[in-house]
Amino acid sequence: MSRINSCFEKLGQQGRKALIPYITAGDPSPAVSVPLMHALVEAGADIIELGVPFSDPMADGPVIQLACERALEHNVRLVDVLEMVREFRQKDGETPVVLMGYLNPVEVLGYDNFASQAAAAGVDGVLTVDLPPEEAGEFGEALRANGLDCIYLLAPTTTEQRIQHICDSGSGYVYYVSVKGVTGSASLDVQAVAEKLDLVRKYTDMPIGVGFGIGTAEAAKAVSAVADGVIVGSVLVKQIAALADDQEKIPEKVAAIIAEMRAAMNA
Amino acid sequence: MSTKFDLAAMKELPDSSGHFGPYGGRFVSETLMAALSQLEQTYEKLKNDPDFQAEFDKDLAYYVGRPSPLYHAERLSREVGGAQIYLKREDLNHTGAHKVNNTIGQALLAKYTGKPRVIAETGAGQHGVASATVAARLGLECQVYMGAEDVERQKLNVYRMKLLGAEVIPVESGTRTLKDALNEAMRDWVTNVDNTFYIIGTAAGPHPYPMLVRDFQAVIGREARQQCLAQTGRLPDALVACVGGGSNAIGLFHPFIGDETVRMIGVEAGGHGLETGAHAAPLCAGRPGVLHGNRTYLMEDDAGQIIGTHSVSAGLDYPGVGPEHAWLKDAGRAEYVAINDDEAMNAFRTLTQVEGIMPALESSHAVAHAMKMAADMDKDQILVVNLSGRGDKDIHTVAQIDGIIV
Ligand SMILES: Cc1ncc(COP(=O)(O)O)c(C=O)c1O
After folding, report:
1. Which position among A56, A249, B166, B280 has the lowest Cβ density within 10 Å, counted as fewest Cβ atoms?
2. CA–CA distance from B375 to each of B77, B78, B344 (Å)?
3. Which domains does chain A have, with CATH numbers?
4. Interchain contact, B26 vs A177, CB within 8 Å
């Protein structure tokens, strides 16, 4: 069974929901990322979404745009991100790692090459923001052939027809984008999310993670009541940015946010 | 020119999923997928609707001032001493460039779909001005995203947009030019997709944009074809147009795709020279990738990061290009070359002094290449150059190069 599937299975048995932090790899410098990943797991993260920096992050708000710029100042490439996962795996063989990014850096490596390198490094799933299933035929095959989950987004604007198609195309979990907007947008409406998730569940048994607009422990708790996973990004990246000149403090301070959310979700 | 492809079939592209061969498509985040398929359906319906077409044609005639003349630049042709050079005078359109053909069309789509707000991205400011213009006329709220660097170098157009009632939003992210303005416009659209129509300024972006922008701009080529036949009794030997995102070029080229004897040459911005890396010529020196919703040729580094571009003309300063050009290149139906800043500046001066026509710096790239080509052609051959815009907006830039403050 894939790490992602066993993670959700274990959580289900414990009656808990997944807490899924997002950080941009190499932000604010490459040395920070792996210790930060370990600290997040220690604080209660169940899955880590590791952002692959891109020069043109079209679906991201200013917070994650700047994170990409900071990482790119250090020339962090997709192959460097895979190297970070490999290093993370030396101490953690259990926590699933999902790469989140844009298609173009993957295009350069080639789908098969990327997928086999990612699998070898210990990646579990890949979420490519600008790759809807309609365009993902060959890419999805390459991921599947290497035992990687292909994680897709659902949005408030996704029609019922597409929900089915997307859920049929993906594996691992689906990522429901809770607001119309970019990452770091205004906070979400839990009631509206709950209604949409009921609809999505008509079409899939896959776990549903909810992200975009979750910035507080209360919001994390509220969303965890209706979703299988809570994805938080911008609030962590903001804290990382604030400590760019004091980088040793990053793992501890950022993990503290996750610990608070974990506690609220478990309560 | 011979290709291994069926030209009639090539002219019918994109296919139903928005692809031109391997290029084009729809690479956007999920939130926009519904809006794009809605736009596609609306457009497919309206494009064969006689009322919609009549309204579009009427606006082009009475508001834009079409048809634009096909002008035989006799003195320039004599000076160059080769082929006869004809200029398709898009510079004479209302607002001074070909851009307005497209904004008229897309504003009509906005009107038919009942969206009260339009947004646009702009590089040189011509598309921003053309968008602000149609928004003013239709009473739509209009916001234009423009790279902060372009806001600096195209002050005149920034002020024009403000006078027209649009809000210009400087974009500080990334390289602070056109590509970043496009990113920001997409982000706005994702957020305000319910009430907003995104007027893309070139024949790029996710399907159906490359198709509908081309269709709106194809009036250039249809007119030029007829005018050339009427004035000379035959088709031109070659077409020349500058390529930023590729809308004026595809507008001129598309109606000629099936005319096998007509060469089509797109001119990219060579900047300081292709060998320096400081240019904006993805078709000449880039490789295929995915950006801004479509697969196409891009300027990128070894890791797939999009790299900064350089051109003296803001309107060509873009690291991608419309997907149909990528396909025309691979299929061998069109050729793509690059003209450097200096060559474009010289052509700007030559056309101004020899014909009394001041071209936009973008269009000057096409003029420069046409002059090079024409010199090696016979006197009875015909070259049609798309004069995509007028140079008024560039006076500041030219004066600066001359060391003069105006
Ligand atoms: C006069 C003029 N020509 C050409 C261009 C380049 O755009 P495209 O390649 O879409 O025609 C621009 C863009 O701003 C322009 O203003």
Report:
1. A249
2. 9, 10, 16
3. 3-148+229-266 (3.20.20.70)
4. no
